[in-house]
Amino acid sequence: MKYFITFGCLFLLVTLHTSGQSRWSIAPSYGYNFGYEQFNHQRYNEEIFQFSENSYGSSVGVTAHYAFNPQWNLSVGLLYVHLASNKQYHYSQIYQTFNLKGTHNYAQLPVLINYRFSQKRLAPYVSAGALFSNRPTTANSVGINTSVQAGIGIDYQFSPKLSLLIQPIGSYLLTRPKDDATSKYDPYHSYIVSLQTQLLWRF
């Protein structure tokens, strides 16, 4: 997590240092998240168990935006995520299902290209890019995970300096657990759907 915090702090320092250019904006961010992970664990081509996990909770942080023009901008965020989870292991060979509860605490670093459809006070707003996190998954608990991320929402400008962004956004995990000669995770799916809000202040 220290790498995320270090990078985020450096990015924000650069943002503040160049704030006089008026292309920059900074936003406190809050999101409510729902996550899902599912896979079948196989060993020597025999199914050992089926796994599924539902998780839900909040994310808070800060996002910096750099505007190329009034419609296009690049954003980089640093978010802290806390999720409560419900895990289910189903062993088909013995007809048993086990349920476990837990929590996830991790950092996210979303890097997005954003497009505002018009310069009106209220306008549609779309985003696409990558999401990096140190979120531990059940099948792959070590390292940085990479997801593809996209969303569509609305941007409402209170004034030339202040606007509110509300955006449902989804991410799909690209980092798959590693198979080996004896074990496979197939099929494997993991995604997060989030309702994100940002209050943007332009310098």
Give a written overview of the molecule:
By secondary structure, the protein is mainly β. It has a single domain (2-202), classed as Porin (Beta Barrel). Helices cover 8% and strands 69% of the residues. It contains 1 helix and 8 strands, in the order αββββββββ. The protein has one helix at 2-17; strands spanning 24-43, 46-67, 72-91, 96-116, 122-133, 145-157, 162-173, 183-202. It has an 8-stranded antiparallel beta barrel.
SS summary, helix count: 1
> What is the topology, as strand order, of the major beta sheet?
1-2-3-4-5-6-7-8
What share of the residues lie within helices? under 10%
- The top-level CATH class is Mainly Beta
Structural class: mainly beta
Give the strand content.
over 45%
Provide the domain count: 1
CATH fold topology: Porin
Major sheet description: 8 strands, antiparallel, barrel
How many extended strands? 8
- Return residue spans where pLDDT drops below 50 for at least 5 consecutive residues: none
The CATH architecture category equals Beta Barrel
Indicate the mean pLDDT.
85
